[in-house]
Design a protein that fits this description.
alpha/beta, five-stranded parallel β-sheet, two-stranded antiparallel sheet, 7 helices, 7 strands, about 40% helix
């Protein structure tokens, strides 16, 4: 089915560069330029390899459904008070590779989702809370240590989505 917008709505849409003539349901989308609403980022907290695939996939799906960007944030645990570059942490290479691979696999389903990759070192709870301060959702694995998840639940300014590693099979 098709329909045409006329009058003030057509002029308003044309002002933002939208097509105001006949449209089909297939090419109509409420984008930020039309609505003025900008979706807040979805932050995927990748800590270790266990649960990384479930977190990455849930974050990409949430971002795609909201028209948002997904930020893959890998936190490498570093000694308290240490000012360490994340790439300098010993033994973290396998974790970085597993998290990066999980993110790329998740993006296969939604290749047009805007994405950034971030790497940080420090205490995971505070780093996740700080980096998700302006996000809409923080996605975490249910397998994280209790102190990390409880810290995020108490201090995060955004919603938190916790996923189980077995969720990957159900989402596939």
């Amino acid at each position: 089915s098709t329909w045409a917008l006329r009058g003030p709505w057509a002029r308003a849409l044309a002002q933002y560069g939208a097509h105001a003539g006949p449209m089909t349901r297939g090419n109509w989308a409420l984008t930020a330029s039309l609505t003025g609403i900008v979706a807040r980022d979805v932050v995927a907290g990748l800590l270790g390899s266990e649960g990384a695939q479930a977190v990455a996939r849930a974050a990409v799906q949430a971002a795609a459904s909201r028209g948002a960007r997904v930020r893959f944030l890998q936190v490498i645990e570093a000694p308290a008070g240490a000012d360490v570059h994340p790439l300098a942490v010993d033994g973290a290479t396998d974790e970085r590779n597993a998290a990066f691979t999980a993110a790329l696999r998740a993006l296969r389903e939604f290749p047009r989702v805007p994405v950034t990759f971030e790497l940080a070192a420090g205490d995971p709870g505070p780093v996740l809370v700080e980096r998700s301060a302006d996000a809409g959702i923080l996605v975490l694995a249910a397998t994280l240590p209790e102190d990390v998840t409880s810290y995020c639940q108490r201090h995060a300014a955004c919603d938190i989505l916790t996923v189980r590693p077995t969720a990957v099979a159900r989402l596939a």
